[in-house]
Amino acid sequence: MNVISSTGPQSVEAGKWYHFVYIRNGDYFTTYLNGKQDIPWTYRPWRTTTGDNNGNRLGIGMRPDKSEPFMSIRGWYDEAAVWNRVLTEAEVRSLYLAAFPEYPRAILASQPAAYWRLNEVVGDNLAYDISGNGRDQTLGNGQSPNVTRSGSPPDVGPRPTDTARNGARLGGFEPTNYAPTIPIGKTGWTDNDYALVVHSTSPVVVPDTQYTVEAWIRPSNTTTYGLVGYIFHRRDFDDSGRFGDALGMGGTYQAGAPAGALFYYNKDTETAIWAPNPTILQPNQWYHVAFVRQGDAIRLYIDGQLEFSAIYPLPSGTNFDQGTWVFGGRSDSNLPPNDHLKWPGNIDEVAIFGRALSQQEILAHFNAALVPEPSTCLLMALGTLLLFGLRVRKIRFASPRSR
Amino acid sequence: MGKQQVFGCRFWVLVAQAAAVMLLGEPFCVQGAILYRDAVLGTNPVIYWPLDETGGPPYPAAVDIAPLAGANNAAYLKHSDTNSVLTLGQAGPRPTDGFLYMPSDNKAPYANHPMTDQRGAGTLYDALYTTAGVPPTAYTVQVWFKQGSLSTEYPTYVFSRANGTAGDDTYLRDSLGIGSGQYGTTAKKMFF
């Protein structure tokens, strides 16, 4: 075979659905996987040397050039469609996004460097990056006493039955959204001990001073769970360079941020930053958080609103070239005995962007989570029809009397 | 008259509004949603096979729901050997997989065969140019797929177009598969 293989970042794993699109335009073709171009435009003219020359036979999930199915897929295939034109990149991307709830759709539309929905449950050994950049990550076993991913409460993500702080329902998620739970008192540095570990084997390398991290968090306890608990820490695992940016929540550590308040920390200069009048997180409430580094400036947003901003230049040192991150704790080993500073509760919908998002974009992401779920829309539509019908009836009844 | 005052419009309007608020907790729906298949149809495909069929063998036709409904139905085919598998009506991408706007009971065919042979099953449409009018020079194909297991022997194909049938590869044209690490392909990577 004269094969042209993808050189894109995505690999096809078993057990995951992929959205695949093939486009031919004249003598060139390209492919898309999960809304991202996979095989770039490549010169490969249509051969007209044999057969009917018009490609009359189309096989889905198989080759159709034999009298019986040949070299077929070993799995499932679905939603096959054909266009007699060249779809644009925007159209292909829209076709992929159209399957998702509003919140992940909004995140994907902003083209993150990586986006893990963390819907995996026990038995799944990879956290699937749906950004199209192929940054899947290995997971722990998801079973107690490790970080749990049972698929049952409390291991569930934000759902339409949940509300944001403002009382709006989180209809921008699916009713079966899952999330890992970090148990209080968790220690250790393995995949079993964090909500997510971004390894150097599947790195997310973004500019040191231009990036954004977004996630949804739900603390199970905000006061007595431990000294402090971290949402994320960006740092090279080989201890070759700087401590990096870390975002945590105050706990019983008296000299730090108030219990339940989010703070920025950098160990290189022993610097902690939090809001003068911080938002105090409440147990079992979902919050949308976005941390932005833009040059020397850092900003933290909670539910789309600025929590604090500050000038804190990263201490000089080597670049973060390993692309490693942890979510749900810190990755440095110099931690207090018996308290590894783990986040207490859920972390979900983790996205990393290779640029500093604006508050407008962050707020739009948060608002996308508040869209009423489809069943709500359907019920409202039915209710509207009912009301319309009753109005008509009222007019009919009223007409004879008005004569 | 009295009956209307009790059970008339005003009463039912109030009941409906109160019920909506009690049930939904919010009086207005601020944004509608477009279901996945409507989004696809909105781009005017020539053919759209949702592949929701069940049963067989004998297998039913794969029904085309593009506006020219029924014009471009396809056939489910399974290789005649005993090792090849084709099961219709399995779970397709669904809201429980995170794809909220797919049908909640979405179905998909499942094809399989030992990785050491080259057979299997799939869906065939053999009038792509003559009936559907899809030229070989400008067209687009979409497929959602999920591998049950990855082949490390023969590569497997997601979609393929051919000029006819032959005993060798001479009629094969645009064909996209998943590499196995054999026959010039890279494992787990899509190839042409």
How many distinct helices of chain A? 4
Query: Portion of residues in helices of chain B?
Result: 10-25%
Strand content of chain A: 25-35%
Oligomer: heterodimer
Gap from first CA to last CA of chain B: 76 Å
Q: Name the structural class of chain B.
A: alpha+beta
Radius of gyration of chain B: 24 Å
Element order, helices and strands of chain B?
A: HHHEEEEEEEEEE
Number of strands of chain B: 10
Residue ranges of chain B: pLDDT <50 for 5 or more in a row?
1-18, 20-31
Classify the secondary structure makeup of chain A into a structural class: alpha+beta
Please count the beta strands of chain A (DSSP E, at least 2 residues each). Answer: 21
Cα end-to-end separation of chain A: 85 Å
What would you report as the Rg of chain A, rounded to the nearest angstrom? 25 Å
Tell the overall outline of chain A.
elongated
Largest interface: A-B, 108 and 129 residues
Largest sheet report of chain B: 3 strands, antiparallel
β-strand amount of chain B:
25-35%
Major sheet description of chain A = 7 strands, antiparallel
